[in-house]
Description:
By secondary structure, this protein is mostly helical. It contains 13 helices and no strands.
Amino acid sequence: MKNRRSIVEWIADTIIVLLVLFAIIITLYPFLYVFSMSISDPLPVMRQEVRLFPKGFSTAAYQLVIQNDTIWQSYYNTIWYTVVGTCINVILTMFAAYTLSIKEFFLRVPILMMITFTMFFSGGMIPMFILINQLGLYNTRWAMVLPGAVGAWYIIITRTFLNSTIPDSLRESAKIDGANDIIILFRIIIPLCMPILSVLILFYAVGHWNSFFNALLYLPSGRLHPLQIFLRRILIFASDELTDDASYGLERSAAVIQLRYAAIMITVLPILFVYPFLQKYFTKGIMVGAIKG
């Protein structure tokens, strides 16, 4: 029975390893393909000869992208939306979650039910557009960060994390020492919440970095467009704005193809560089916040 169980376990482990390897391959292949297409010579790119690894080497597409002023304006807009929006999101989420984690708060259950209700029902696109317009946020940067200033799901998992991780006695002892809720939140609760804070920062930041639909609705001015709108013009509409100043001897069609892949790489690299620094707390925070209750 012991040998039979060992064989079963070995087969199960082998299947798991194969599935993980398969997931790694199908995840890394698109990224490697895009990178290879962006740095290959123009001729193999035109002939669609690049399959996995680069053929030749050329940075002309990156040079064209970097020399374009529009992408830097879009980069600035995206960084502004990401930094400001994430700060607003995290602060409001922590305030709401901490308030709802206090068991003595008599409106805790009704407010939590209203927050949960918003996860399933919304006002719709047209009422939201009318509201943004009437509030004077239309065609301003705040239209990208204020409508989604806090997420209901993130309030719930943060509140669950606080209830399951931080004992009530800690807050009560701080109250006895004369601390109010603001001091308790900033000096005691937040330093103990690095796992869930890393989850909030990562999820909110990725959401702002990838956001483009709100920009289509609320930002008619091109100077306020985020990086994703710029990438959308390159990918979907085959925009020629980057190839107007091309002087590298590239065929126009090859330049357009390579510029698309170079723009994709420039767009996704910042998020890829940020993730390893938050990975230390990420798994612990999302598991504790979502499962324990």
